[in-house]
Amino acid sequence: MPGIDAAINDLVIANRILAKEGVVDAYGHVSLRHPGNPERFFLSRSLIEVVRMSVYLPRNARALQRARQLGGEIRYLSEGEIAARNKGYSPYSTETWRAWEYWANKAGCGHLLSRPER
Asked: How many CA atoms lie within 13 A of 21 on its CB side?
C-alpha cells in the first residue's frame, strides 16, 4: 500500500529524534494510525508537529523556570501574537521542515527522510 513505507520511516525518525532530544526514553513512544485502516496503529510515530512540540515544550519550560528565578515581570505572548504566529502554519513549512531535517540528521536517521508534497 502506498504511503506505508513513508509512514514507517516517519515513525522511526520521530522516535529517534525524541530519544536524541531527551523527550522519550524506554517508557515513551509515538504511535501512528495505519494509513489504510484507521482502527490499527503502528507504534511510535507522529505528523512532524508533535515531535516539534515535544522537543520545545521542555525547553520552553526550562526557560520559563530560569526566568522566574531571575525575578521581575514575565511578559507572555498575547492572544493576538499567538494567532499571528499560528496563521497559515503548516507542519511541512520550510521552517518546520528545516527543524525536522536537523533533528533527523542529529539522531542519525536523516537518510530516511522523504519530504511529502504539500
From this structure: 23
